[in-house]
């Protein structure tokens, strides 16, 4: 089974160069192509992706402008090495933090993971379209890079049989568990994003002063069937980790 | 010319229900379908979009989970009315702030627009792949909702003949001018997003206390050919306006 061709096939209705961009981006973001690594020669890479060299070149030009690769005249094309403080993740991709860290070659650790049953507050219940007081599984996770806490996740999931126990004993990321769930696998979110002053509980979890700006997301988790399966609140210290996003021009019609 | 079909044709290689989601989202976000408005009957809407009713239903189910529409049993389907303080914009869409405001039925005003020529700092030049000291067109814009400043844009564009004069006399959004530019129209960005403490100049522009958290974006503006045409720094007061985004699960391959 050729992994790259699988990636292409999934989106076969998109133009080839877009598929190539997606495949290469994923190879970079998952670490198959590591920061600083030289890309294979164009003819080899084109053959691997089963596209023409001119299509590959078009994809590479876009990846260069996105800062993911850089070309050195007469030397070759290389995966960019992220610079600056902290590291990055693509916002549109709902990916476990520890995987982003691994790809960026950062030392990741779990500071805390706490799983408990709680009753839904009125607000949480409203977001979930559930009754106030319904039992939810709450998972609080604090993750660190080089021993310094970067993010605090406060997730609430609709309770299914044994979920709390399963999440407690699950070693990998909670997101990965929810992706793989046999009942209603998590496929996408709707996320609102804010800059807020760290409230007291968040500040103490992240070991930052109360009131320091944090990047906050309020996410509603959905299954492919459009069911709401949970709500996630997350707090990132942005000088330790931040997101990037590609925004596309919309020519206004009004 | 049927506008909706035009939208569909642009992305004709995507699955139909995705095209339908995009077309309906755009109709909602551009105000063709206003908050609170009832959607046309399914057969009518399906005909308008030139898709089957089952494809339309699939699209509607997704839009419902994204919170853009809501169905009332036995009554019909309605465009959701945004709730909460402030209002929202989709982050992946690079759209003029004043259009987002118009769609949300908010009173928008331009507090300030200042166009000048500046020399590129070392940092700006590096981002743009240009020489330090090269002349750039700087545009500072402050925009308000109901008279309260919400966002400060600090944009730098590669200088082309007469650009500063053209931007000074252009009445609509600077973004719209750049979208329409005959030379290298702006098509997409790479944007890094942060929560930061408002520095002194930003705080005074936005009329907020120094140090208040603001949502900050550092954007590199690209043309469809992958050329860098500018850099945008923007600062949003998130209790007055905030972004949302859809994040899609990525099953890790490492």
Key attributes of the depicted protein:
homodimer; 254 residues; alpha+beta; Arc Repressor Mutant, subunit A; Chorismate lyase; 2 domains; six-stranded antiparallel sheet; two-stranded antiparallel sheet; globular; disordered N terminus
Protein model, in words:
The structure is a homodimer of 254-residue chains. The first copy, chain A, is an alpha+beta fold. Chain A has two domains: 4-79, Arc Repressor Mutant, subunit A; 88-244, Chorismate lyase. Helices cover 31% and strands 35% of the residues of chain A. Chain A is built from nine helices and eleven strands. In chain A, the strands form three sheets. Chain A has a six-stranded antiparallel β-sheet, with helices on both faces. In chain A, helix 2 (16-29) crosses helix 4 (53-65) and helix 3 crosses helix 4. The interface between A and B is large, with 68 and 69 residues.
